[in-house]
Amino acid sequence: MNRQSSLARFFRLVFQAGNQIRQVKHELKYSSCILLCASLFPGFAVTAMADPATEYRIKTAFLYNFAHYTEWPGSFNDNFNLCFYGNHPFGAYLDHLREKQVQGHAVLIRETSDIGALHDCQLVFVGRNRMVDLKEIIESVAGKPILIVSDNPGTIQPGIMLNMDLTKEGKIGFEADLGVARKNGLNFSSQLLRIAKNMRNE
Amino acid sequence: MQTLDGYSRRPMERRTSHFSSIAFVLFYLSLMQIQTVYAVKQFEDLSLDELANIVVVGASKYEQKQSEVAAAVRVITHNDIRTYGWRTLTEVLASLPGIYATYEHQYDYLGTRGLGLPGDYNTRVLVTVNGNRINEATYDQGATGRDFPLDLDLIERIEFFPGPGSAVYGQNAMLGVVNIITRSGSDLQGIELSGAYQTAESMTQERVSIGKQFNNGVNALVSVSGLQARGRDFFFDYGATGISGVARGMDGENVKQVFARVTRGPLAFDFIYGDRKKEDPTAAYFSDPLVPGQWQKDRRLHTQLQYNDNLANNTLNVLGRLFLGYFDWQSPLYFDGEKTVFTGPSNWHGAELRLLSTVLANHKLMLGVEYQNNNRIRQTAKNAVHPEENITVDSSVLRIGVYIQDEWRISDTLSATLGLRYDYNGWIGSRLSPRGAVIWQATPKTIFRALYGRAHRSPNSYERDYDDGFTQVANTGLRSESIDTLELVADYLPQPNMNLRATVYAWNLNKLITLGIDPDSGLTQYQQTRKKVLARGVELSLNQTWDWGARLRSSYGIQHVEQQGAQLPNSPYHLGKLNVSIPIPLMTALRAGYELQYYGKRKTLDGSFTNGYFLSNLHLTSDVRRIKGVRASLGIYNLFDENYQHPAADTNWQNSLSQLGRTVRFRLDYRF
């Protein structure tokens, strides 16, 4: 971005906005200070508050799509419980999902590190640092219609139904294990399976 | 106009403040960003095809693999704590290589890598909860026993970084850093009730925790815990007094704890309060033997407000925290029938700002500044019979630290960490704590680490300032202790579920602060010894998990610590640890955790040795699935009723102290 034109646009915009509210001068004083800082560190300040296509921003959107293109047997009681097991790097991106609905149910984000608390989740994302607990998670939710998602680099781990990975081109891809999903009463729509890089169906 | 940025959707407040100015600028800066293709849509509105074609920017360099960490960190999880039924932080940490516990019927002490001087109040290990220092401002004590103010059930994860940590954490991180991460409201999502009874000490324990994550993103956890124990009747020999006998009903203990954590987005608030009273059957500090009504009471309050967020495309992590703490110690003791009440309250507050940037390729740069004001430290002794002997010692100290660290990924297989921290406080002046590490992934299955670090601790106020004119005189000339550590670590992972680790280390401790005699007054005084403490040690460990659910953690450590050719007291040569947990066949959700530990003989202050001993603990846990939410557990501690002793401190009549025999604890948890 051309810094000069940004500066000019910025001043114009601040001015217009300033006219709409009282005490423009006071505003401007601080604004220009911050503007100065911002223009000194364009890489930091300018992009900091925008919402660029970072890895986890896109993965957040993928999670939403996974929920959208999966069929659950019967209906859920109340909310669509989107659970995150262990630490995860999604951070504030999850705010984008809080006001969303999945199949008519409000999305409720839950972050937990307690395997016992996963039984009423519809989707469980297992953080990379907690893949060691995968076996235990799968045992505890066995047979329940719970979509288990991870973003483990490399191949899909046994028991995981959808695994996201960063491709060499810097895009997000995912593998699907339809066999495991069906065993738990879930089904993936054809749109989802069409995009999947690899699909297992044992 | 709509942007992808959540900030722009909020209505602007029509008031003049710096914040509104900032918001304005941010608003317009974000408007400038709307040139991207997906500007008017949220990513969630895109089709899968479109999403799969986006090239992501600044692919996360954030997640740090264990293999890249510049320390041989050990992690213990909530599940491990449940599986082995550990009751105190000391018991948790004692399962790790090279750590041994000492209990003198008042406080727990951690021995680390061969250093566990009797009565040193855990000043050389730093304990933090969510990054907030637990070592208080009067004695710098990093509590790990029942005086540790947080219920273990509220811990999500414990990370132990062996070795020097002062290059980041500042003082007290000499032999290790214990970093505790708590659970949050969403981990509970409901109410948890817990009750336990333990034999021998006739102990009851209870806890009520409520946790919830609300739809607006607020995540709250509130918990209250209690412990009441009658204690054991031990036989004690009160040394020079010529008195010995069974201390009946003098081992009671009472603990009350409150914990609250509220988070929303990048903000978190922690409130940790612990109140623990322990009766003293040992007549510590050479008080009158077998006299009831002598006890120690510790009250701790640790609060903090933390901001932690990733900015600038996830290339900048900002951690800011404000903290406020209070500590109070109180102890009535009888000397020749006269009661003296000792107290040691302190207040502190401070702030820390840490920036972690990954904007430079292959570098992870950390910059931090920390400030702590121990604004009130007061030590008193009050004698009701002779009020003229009452004393009050007031002191305060301001600490400032600045640190910088770079983790440089030289190649795919080689990385280096360099760090330096500068500390200043009025008592010790300036200190520099450097740290360096090289990590080499020699083969896909082998990692080598070479680590060097220097760490220090400032004398605590008790050592420096306490002066009652008849037992101890002050020594304001005390400077800091420092330790240099060199360590080589080799990790070998022959299978994905198996880890073999060998560690060789050497450390030298300079200017150790110990109790000596003041030549002028002839009274005791904390002094700095010129005699260096030298240590060499080896630790071997094997961790393995099996597909059928079993887990094994084992280690063996040999440590040799000497001071001018003489072995240091309370420093066992040999330490062996074994932890096995297995699912019980045919009974789903029943799990057994077995722990076997060997502690070699330890030298006592009179030059004799306590015997080496084996300690076995067995713990069974079960989820009673038919009754939803009920969890039962049974623990048998010291399974074979081993009779063993720990070396006593130079403030005890005794030379060594008997420990608890077999105890059985039954515990029931209910969750709804």
From TrEMBL, chain B:
UniProt keyword terms in alphabetical order: Cell outer membrane, Membrane, Receptor, Signal, TonB box, Transmembrane, Transmembrane beta strand, Transport
Main location class: membrane
Top-rank taxon, per record: Bacteria
Molecular-function GO terms, alphabetical: siderophore uptake transmembrane transporter activity
Gene3D superfamilies: TonB-dependent receptor, beta-barrel domain, TonB-dependent receptor, plug domain
Keyword Translocase: no
TM helices/strands, residue ranges: none
GO terms under cellular component: cell outer membrane
Start and end residues of each TonB-dependent receptor-like beta-barrel domain: 284-639
Chain ranges of the TonB-dependent receptor plug domain: 66-177
Keyword check for Signal: yes
Coiled coil: none
SUPFAM superfamilies in the record: Porins (SSF56935)
Membrane topology classification: Multi-pass membrane protein
Localization, UniProt: Cell outer membrane
One of the GO biological process terms: siderophore transmembrane transport
Family per record: Belongs to the TonB-dependent receptor family.
Name of the featured protein: TonB-dependent receptor
Provenance organism: Nitrosomonas mobilis
Taxonomic lineage of the native organism: Bacteria, Pseudomonadati, Pseudomonadota, Betaproteobacteria, Nitrosomonadales
